[in-house]
Amino acid sequence: MPRQSLYGLTVALFATAFAGVALADPGVTADKIIFGQAAALEGPASALGQGMRDGIKAAFAEANMSPPRRSPPPRS
After folding, report:
1. Nearest Cα residue to 48 out of 61, 59, 37
2. Between 17 and 6, whose confidence is greater?
3. 44-73 pLDDT, tens digit each
4. Backbone phi, then psi, for 62, in 5-degree steps?
5. Closest CA to 1 of 29, 46, 9
6. Partner residues linked to 5 by β-bridges
7. Residue closest to 31 by CA, chosen among 64, 76, 71
8. Rounded CA gap, 25 and 34, in Å?
9. Where in the chain are the domains?
10. pTM of the predicted protein model
11. Which has the higher per-residue pLDDT, 53 or 12?
12. Alpha carbon distance 57, 27 (integer Å)
């Protein structure tokens, strides 16, 4: 494949990938934040993906049990 075609294809793929990100819902509201994770939950890498999922679930469970952190008042 000619170098120019490969360059054009690469640019087109990145533009397509980032267009979806630009139009995505931010997932942040006044009372919640929505997170997403991409991980292999089946197949040869499933142990790694399931471990990642279990780890993030445990981290969020621990964070949700803690009292909310308050910011210090602004200095005058």
Report:
1. 37
2. 6
3. 999 999 999 999 999 888 888 877 777 777
4. -65, -45
5. 9
6. none
7. 64
8. 10
9. 22-67
10. 0.48
11. 53
12. 18
